[in-house]
Amino acid sequence: MIVTDRKCASLNMEMFCKGGYISWETLVYITAEPDIKDHINSLTIVLMQETERFNKLLIIIKTSLEQLKKAIKGFVVMSEELENVYNAFLNNHVPELWARNAYPSLKSLASWVKDLIMRCCFIDNWINNGPPKSFWLSGFFFPQGFLTGTLQNFARKYNQPIDHLSFKFILLPYSREEAMEQLRTVKKGETIPMDQNLDVPDEGVLVHGLYMDGFAWDWDHMTVGDQLKGQMQANLPVMHMDPRLDYEPDLSLYPAPLNKTAARAGTLSTTGHSTNFVVTVHLPSSNTQDYWIAKGEALLCQISD
């Protein structure tokens, strides 16, 4: 049997995963091949960083649960931190220890754990099967890094200054509401049924998993529309984020702010990025910008529960 470099990398990945670390060579082999200029896909770096963040969070969760179990049995002292974890469980809240090392979220503990499992499935599928046709933007620990990596790929390919690049947002007539549920049942080497109708664009990326807070999507006219009665948040269709040089969006488009949570507020981190705001998405609309701004419409990466 011939053992390829990719198979060796896969075996190497399984060994490193047990220690909470994935080697750079493994990610290069599994996720991308160098381009004609011998540049590694920038999204490979994004995947490596996301894997490290999730591994760090999972280690903290595992360690705290093991220590809490020992404290309940009386083998170790019940510290104030462990007591706070225990009390958070009783109230269905995410423990402060976990939240401090995790991504922004307003979910209750039960929903938060389910969301974390789906995020890990998303990263695991990316490692095992390569880049997906459509990326679950809400599943990233740091989505701004993914957007920067996409622009960097374009800048390297065409020798363009990255600070002059921005996205043109093209909405596609596809919905992926059940994509993550299907992803949990997909085996290694398989693809979900929803991906069969999607074509990977030559430039940019396809993303999904965003919610419309306070308004909805008009599928007949492929524009934003008023919120339906009884509907809190509607799903945004699959979106093509196409890098453009010195792009000036049309004034008829509504500049919808994309936030990680419904808090609508955040602080600047040490990287210069907001802890909540991601990017401004320009959406097609039959109404003026003032109409939607007055109603406070925005996009969300995740709903509260």
Automatic annotation (TrEMBL):
Report the record's Gene Ontology biological process terms. Answer: microtubule-based movement
> Which residues belong to any copy of the Dynein heavy chain C-terminal domain?
37-301
Gene3D superfamilies named in the record: 1.20.1270.280, 3.10.490.20
A cellular-component GO term for this protein:
cilium
Where does it primarily localize? other
InterPro entries given for it? DHC, Dynein_C, Dynein_C_barrel
Record's protein name: Dynein axonemal heavy chain 6-like isoform X4
| Cell location | Cell projection, Cilium; Cytoplasm, Cytoskeleton
Keywords annotated in UniProt: Cell projection, Cilium, Coiled coil, Cytoplasm, Cytoskeleton, Nucleotide-binding
Q: What PANTHER family does this protein's entry cite?
A: DYNEIN HEAVY CHAIN 6, AXONEMAL-LIKE, DYNEIN HEAVY CHAIN 6, AXONEMAL-LIKE-RELATED
Is Coiled coil included in the keywords of this UniProt record?
yes
Picking any one GO molecular function of the record gives: dynein intermediate chain binding
